[in-house]
UniProtKB/TrEMBL annotation:
GO molecular function terms listed in the Swiss-Prot or TrEMBL record: ATP binding; glutamine synthetase activity
Chain segments annotated as transmembrane: none
Nucleotide-binding in keyword set: yes
UniProt domain GS catalytic: residue ranges: 120-456
Family: Belongs to the glutamine synthetase family.
Top-level division of the source organism's lineage: Bacteria
Residue ranges constituting the GS beta-grasp domain according to the UniProt record: 17-113
Any Gene Ontology biological process: biogenic amine catabolic process
Keywords: ATP-binding, Ligase, Nitrogen fixation, Nucleotide-binding
One Pfam family it belongs to: Gln-synt_C
Cofactor(s) this protein cannot do without: Mg(2+)
Protein name: Glutamine synthetase
InterPro entries: Gln_synt_N (IPR008147), Gln_synt_N_sf (IPR036651), Gln_synth/guanido_kin_cat_dom (IPR014746), Gln_synth_cat_dom (IPR008146)
Amino acid sequence: MAGNLSFDQLKKAVSDGEIDTVLACIVDMQGRLAGKRFLAQYFVDSAYGETHGCNYLLACDIDMEPVPGYKAASWSKGYGDFVMKPDLSTLRRIPWLEKTALVICDVLDHHDHEDLAHSPRAILKKQVKRLSERGYIGYFASELEFYLFSETYDSARKKHWQGLDSASPYIGDYQIGITTKEEGVMRRLRNEMEAAGIPIENSKGEWGPGQEEINVRYAEALEMADRHVILKNGAKEIAHSEGKAISFMAKYNYGLAGNSSHIHNSLWSADGGTPLFFDKNAEWTLSSLGQQWAAGQLKYAKELTWFLAPYINSYKRFQAGTFAPTKIMWSEDNRTAGFRLCGEGTKGIRMECRIGGADLNPYLAFAALIAAGLAGIDEKLELQKPFVGDAYQASQLPEIPKTLRDAAETLESSAMLKQAFGEEVIEHYMHTARWEQFEYDRRITDWELHRGFERY
């Protein structure tokens, strides 16, 4: 079960006065929680069946501005409702909010009550169903990195996001002494996520001053995506309550390491008992199925990059010598490559996609990786030999798209993703990419002003 609270337990907690608020949340295109705060008694009496929201929530930008040109929702169509259907298996207590529970909702068409095709959760559910039809379970884990600041969000805003005080003044990667100073937030984050039904394996300092990484226990793809978005939302809320701020920007500072979201993925039997990637007699102990899966992700990496890097800023992270990849290649335990084989020789063998930033939407990213992996299996692709050496310096290797514009163009031409997701879904997200590029192209940046105000 994804959550840690049954509906009967919720009703009892409401009756006993232990819970008085239920957050009913969808996941928007940006991977954020959006929804309503219900009086808990009303939720258990009625709203647990369904509630409604404006369909512009899946047709607006990160600033919550309605974006013209979407086919699914527009002013000409009146921005009507869609159905928010609580998935009661995701019910959980939220320890960092007083007397509060949370449930994630599926987004359904207002008329036929079918999954809304362009909803991020529906997109992933469709790919999970494709796995299930073949007798597979996809296990995923996303490692989230972020910067922790000794600032509030208000103070950071007043500083115009410049000259911010990070939680530590220098790099403390793996250093216990430094991370002890950050435990006010990090200890709460580990323990309160665990209490919310999101099992945390560990946290550690990362390769930037005040940068952190938190690792969540792997799970079936849909459940892992649910954990991911709740973790991101909760991390910001916990930090706020401690007078701190957290940023998941892919690259908040040119001179510092970016924030990644490495995605570990593998296939198991339908009952979850047999790892389908492990073959002790195979090369690299990676089964033929695992090799085809990995080959598919490599072949289609350029086409799916937008789902791993959806913003202008995402592409600032891909810099040589920063532990962020720049090349599309796989390796055995080599952090300079875009894909890394982990757990070789064990049942936990898996592929790690290192391309994605912490700004990705996990539902879209997982779905795209599943679609590419299944394409590799269907096409019976052969996995090339692993790369050895410094991939940053290997000019012969194919490159990850360098800009949002490049990634959007390759996505637009992807026959594989159009078939897997549906052409209307791809067009919906292509429109999102075009709008992001348009908004950036017409803005004047601080860099331009500093460089050109006097000297041009």
